Amino acid sequence: MFRFLSLLAFVLLLVACNRAQPETTLPATDLPEPETATSLPPTDAPTPTVAPTETSAPALPADATPLDGQWEGAIDIAGQQLGIIVKFDSSTGAPTATIDIPQQGAADLPLDDVRLEGDAIHFAIGSAGAEFDGVIDGQTISGDFAQAGVTGTFEISRTGDVVAATATPIPPYVVEEVSWPLGETTVGATLTRPEGDGPFAAVVFVAGSGPTDRDWNSPLLPGRNGSAALLADELTRAGYATLRYDKRFTGPFAQQNMPLLLGNITFQSHVDELASAVEFLVAQPGIDPAQVFVLANSEGTLHAMNYQNGDPATPFAGLILTGAPGRPLTEVLHQQMAENVLSAEPNRDELLVLWDEAIAAFLAGETAELDPALPDSAQQVFAGLVAPANQPFSAELLAAQPAELLANVTAPTLVIIGQKDIQIDWQADGAVLEAAAGDNVTFSYPANANHILKLEETPVEELTAANGANYNAADRVLDAETVQVILDWLAEQMS
Predict the structure, then answer these.
(1) Mean per-residue pLDDT for 199-210?
(2) What is the per-residue DSSP string for 261-315?
(3) pLDDT surpasses 80 at 23
(4) Is 242 in the same domain as 374?
(5) Which residues make Cβ contacts (< 8 Å) with residue 163, sequence separation at least 6?
(6) Which of 238, 235, 219 lies closest to 294 in space, CA to CA?
(7) Residues in Cβ contact with 240 at an 8 Å cutoff, skipping those fewer than 6 apart
């Protein structure tokens, strides 16, 4: 089975954002795609641009602003061009926008801080620290691009209308967009709670690896149908308050947070984020501090267990760990390298030995170099691991022992690994976790749940990495069996 290097998403994100040479870099995807740093092609590579699809733009709707519509063109940095497609829409009030970057596989990446003042337009990709400042001149927007000290220009031409967004149905519960300070940084989040005074049991969500946002959306995958938002809806309708927060290098505060985070991300910094979320949650009216649960995914399960085992001021009443690794992370990475990066190499076994030797040297604190016999794709992954900007996080990640963490958790715990999960092996990882678990841990292996708990109807023997491309498509739904397992388990803890 073809697996992703999901555990390395954040490592590669930091390498990409911290390179010295001029390039445009977007964040690596969180969970469901092959983990590769995204950047401009090398200077000697062909750089196709996105040509406008029409020579004359259609008329705007009567109630649209001059910004509304689809615009196509390119970013230009030192003569290199990166094609982009930007879609602006003000049909629901304040202007919103998304950007596609076909050369980097990015689709429907949300833009931040979209402003139109006269003929001046500003927008940003907060998670990548990229800013655009331009001027509208009829059917063209042109101006300056900047990212991490790298500057260039951009020009896009309007090529069509964007269908007005459908109004979001008003849910039968309270929804608040909230934020709070954490040191010099800011954490953004969404709080939901049932109508009434409470007190309510509550669930905090912890996202998986990479720049996954509060909803568990991946910025380089199409669609915004994130599992966390869907789960929060299910839980709030069932009577629970929920809080789902952005890791500080994602979401609307990423641009201002990123300079303070590079080189300073550790397991403890993730626990600090979670602790700040719990502290914020229990301070809200109507929340029962004795009934706060956590629902974590993938890498997030490690942070949830570290929090619980760290004698926190507000311990969790129970933990729900989904897509949880069980084997040491070096073993998970070894399997991912074998089944993805090196799968087509005729001397794969010999290359894996060289890979393991380099990883062992890295974890031992020695000067670690990867043998040049390994292909460029492996070299890039290794460079991401050992880059100074990624320390000590990558060393902590590879040294993590999930089963030992679970063995130390005494609170009621539900472990869910879907049998259609192509990132964590429900049999191999589940067996290790079961061997370490106490009587407080319940295990569930839903037959048709994928890594982010969506329904996956493709036969398991046919699943490949390509199946991850539609994880958050608009028509994807949660696996009903998994949702019911979660609701039943929570009800049992409440009783």
Answers:
(1) 94
(2) HTT---HHHHHHHHHHHHHHHHTSTTEEEEEEEEEEETHHHHHHHHHHHT--SS-
(3) no
(4) yes
(5) none
(6) 235
(7) 194, 200, 201, 202, 203, 490
Q: Considering its fold, how many domains does the chain have in total? A: 2
Which of 272-276, 321-325, 341-345, 451-455 is predicted least confidently?
A: 341-345
| CA–CA distance, 333 with 36 (Å, rounded to integer) | 14
Q: Can you tell me the mean pLDDT for 308-325?
A: 97
Residue 166's pLDDT is 58
Residues 94-153 pLDDT 10s: 888 988 887 665 667 888 889 989 999 999 987 677 899 999 998 999 999 998 678 899
pLDDT for residue 49 is more than 70: no
Q: Which strands form 120-125's sheet, in the order they lie side by side?
A: 106-110, 96-101, 80-89, 69-77, 150-160, 140-147, 130-137, 120-125, 112-117
Residue written as tokens 């833009």? 111
Q: What's the number of CA atoms in the CB half-sphere (13 Å) around residue 303?
A: 28
State both tokens at 127. Answer: 């998670």
One domain, residues 321 and 430: yes
Radius of gyration over every alpha carbon of the chain, rounded to an integer in angstroms: 23
Q: Which of 28, 32, 48, 202 is nearest to 128 (CA)?
A: 28
Q: Which domain holds residue 139?
A: 47-160
Instruction: Look up the pTM and report it.
Output: 0.75
Res 25: pLDDT: 34
Residue 12 phi, psi (nearest 5):
-70, -30
φ/ψ region of 343 (left if φ > 0, alpha if ψ in -120 to 50, else beta) reads alpha
> How confident is the model over 277-302, as pLDDT tens digits?
999 999 999 999 999 999 999 999 99
Read off the amino acid at residue 372: P
Task: Please tell me the distance from the alpha carbon of residue 445 to that of residue 299, in angstroms, as a whole number.
Answer: 18
The reply to whether 110 and 176 lie within a common domain is no
Mean pLDDT rounded to a whole number for the chain: 83
The span from the first CA to the last CA of the chain, in angstroms, equals 41
Write the CA distances from 238 to 203, 293, 487, integer angstroms.
Answer: 12, 14, 8
Residue 181 · residue 91 · CB < 8 Å: no
d(CA 71, CA 52): 8
* One domain, residues 300 and 235: yes
Final residue of a structural domain among 160, 194, 213: 160
Nearest to 406 by CA among 333, 491, 477, 304: 304
In this structure, are 35 and 51 located in the same domain? Answer: no
Q: Are residue 455 and residue 403 in the same domain, yes or no? A: yes
Peptide bond into 48 cis (omega under 30): no
Same-domain check for residues 275 and 311: yes
44 against 447, higher pLDDT: 447
Q: Domain check: are 382 and 455 in the same one?
A: yes
